[in-house]
User: Which sequence fits this backbone?
């Protein structure tokens, strides 16, 4: 089993973060519902990913295109990160992977602010994909909508074609929106709140819900948990992968705000 998570506290919120994967598991504004979804079936074991919260994805997104047996979504969510700095409401983690030094800053207050800095410490240019694969807790995904990506081109793994309207969840949804820096808003009428996902240094957004069959196929995800979550992910992938010269760095940021109606 993994070591217990670290606790962050501020006058406005609390959060827990595992050193394994530098994984933010919970974020909860005081007096409000939890913002992040965590699966009751998640495995908390060394060498395995945590299901829910905010997994950090690097240096590839999804399956490795060159090695079918490589772990999905890269390497860094499967290892313990170094804890570089500790504060009541802020943590800084570091790790090295694929010739790059990663620094990950997690801070809380009125918002959950996440910042992933990647520095090429090698002698040759490198290309990588990255994501903050955020799982949001919702009252019922079938009643929720996501705005901010209307008219944005996307790739779908499940054959969807219409992207002109706000996103509604009526089936499995797995969309990679390209060339977008837009803020997304998750509207949850059941819990009477809006969750705003602001970002910078990211040119892709993924929106995902596994629906019925995919949920049953995942051993670390409850069969009936799919209505309780929606993923809105801050990403650089595919045509928007990052190219980084030696000695250069790239920073991707995500800020989560909650507005109770």
Assistant:
């Amino acid at each position: 089993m993994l070591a217990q998570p670290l606790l962050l506290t501020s006058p406005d919120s609390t959060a827990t973060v595992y050193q394994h994967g530098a994984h933010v598991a919970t974020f909860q504004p005081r007096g409000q519902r939890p913002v992040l979804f965590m699966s009751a079936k998640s495995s908390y074991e060394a060498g395995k990913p945590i299901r829910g919260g905010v997994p950090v994805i690097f240096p590839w997104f999804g399956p490795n295109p060159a090695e079918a047996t490589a772990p999905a979504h890269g390497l860094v969510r499967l290892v313990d990160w170094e804890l570089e700095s500790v504060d009541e409401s802020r943590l800084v983690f570091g790790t090295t992977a694929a010739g790059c030094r990663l620094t990950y800053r997690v801070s809380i207050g009125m918002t959950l602010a996440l910042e992933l800095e990647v520095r090429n410490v090698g002698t040759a240019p490198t290309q990588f994909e990255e994501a903050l694969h955020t799982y949001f807790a919702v009252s019922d995904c079938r009643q929720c909508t996501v705005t901010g990506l209307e008219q944005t081109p996307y790739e779908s793994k499940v054959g969807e074609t219409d992207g002109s309207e706000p996103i509604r969840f009526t089936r499995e949804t797995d969309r990679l929106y390209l060339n977008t820096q837009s803020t997304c808003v998750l509207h949850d009428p059941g819990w009477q709140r809006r969750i705003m996902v602001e970002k910078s240094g990211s040119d892709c957004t993924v929106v995902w819900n596994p629906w019925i069959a995919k949920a049953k196929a995942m051993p670390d995800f409850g069969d009936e948990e799919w209505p309780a979550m929606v993923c809105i992910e801050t990403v650089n992938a595919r045509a928007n992968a990052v190219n980084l010269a030696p000695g250069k760095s790239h920073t991707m940021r995500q800020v989560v705000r909650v507005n109770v109606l």
The chain has one helix and 21 strands. The mean pLDDT is 97.
